[in-house]
Amino acid sequence: MKRAAFLDRDGVINVEHGYVHTWEDFEFVPGSVDAMRRLHEAGYALVVITNQSGLARGMYTEAQYQQLTATLREHLLGQGVPLAAVYHCPHHPKGTVPALAVDCDCRKPAPGMLLQAARALDLSLADSVLVGDKGSDAEAGRAAGVGRVMLVRSGHALTPADLALADSVHADLAAATADLLADATAARAP
User: Fold this and answer.
1) Rounded-to-integer distance, Cα 144 and Cα 127, Å
2) Helix (H/G/I), strand (E/B), else coil: 156
3) For residue 27, what is the DSSP state?
4) Alpha-carbon distance 112 to 118, whole Å?
5) pTM for the full model?
6) Is residue 8 among the annotated active site residues?
7) Which of 1, 10, 33, 164 could form a disulfide with 124 if both were Cys (CB 3.0 to 4.6 A apart)?
């Protein structure tokens, strides 16, 4: 079984501008591409897990979301950062698109996307890491049994309860990755 780095998208990989759905509006968080490359080189399968309630709210279409995702994957691959998979939840109970306005088991804090990825990619959740920027990300990681849960500060307020769910909190993905890989190096030292 492989280990994965489960990465939230908005706020972790890209700057969260609110319902980003076009490549023109997509702006990488500084250092995030290099951090993903370092995780890949360290043997982590990179799996993006993202709530996309803008779909349920009718703010953009599935085709627009898929186009952005395809462009993101292609861009990252060109930077030496292959994504093993990208999972998204299009649902929101208060959505305006009836088919997507449902409670589901994939919208974080539910663990559905992580569990689906683990089955499809033969991942060891206990050996994996999750990096998110909200308490709901940490809750999903804990519910799925992910071995290490890290949060980054993207501008979302983190409550004491959110902080309690995380193993560590960092400025961004680059800092979280540096900490994770330094711990792995220290664990291998005699």
Assistant:
1) 12
2) coil
3) -
4) 10
5) 0.96
6) yes
7) 1
Contact between 56 and 92 (Cβ < 8 Å): yes
Host H or E run for residue 50: strand 44-51
With contact defined as beta carbons under 8 Å apart, do 96 and 54 qualify? Answer: no
Closest residue by Cα to residue 47 from 129, 109, 107, 105: 129
Known catalytic membership, residue 133: no
Give, for all 190 residues of the chain, the pLDDT tens digit. 899 999 999 999 999 988 999 999 999 999 999 999 999 999 999 999 999 999 999 999 999 999 999 999 999 999 999 999 999 999 999 999 999 999 999 999 999 999 999 999 999 999 999 999 999 999 999 999 999 999 999 988 999 999 999 999 999 999 999 999 998 777 776 6
Query: Which phi and psi (to 5°) does residue 151 adopt?
Result: -115, 150
Task: Kindly tell me the burial class for residue 138, based on how many C-beta atoms sit within 10 Å of its own C-beta (0-12, 13-18, 19 or more).
Answer: buried
Phi, psi (degrees; rounded to nearest 5) at 115: -65, -40
Cα distances (Å, whole numbers) of residue 53 to 85, 101, 134, 141, 163: 19, 9, 15, 19, 24
Q: How far is CA 124 from CA 116, 145, 187, in A?
A: 12, 9, 19
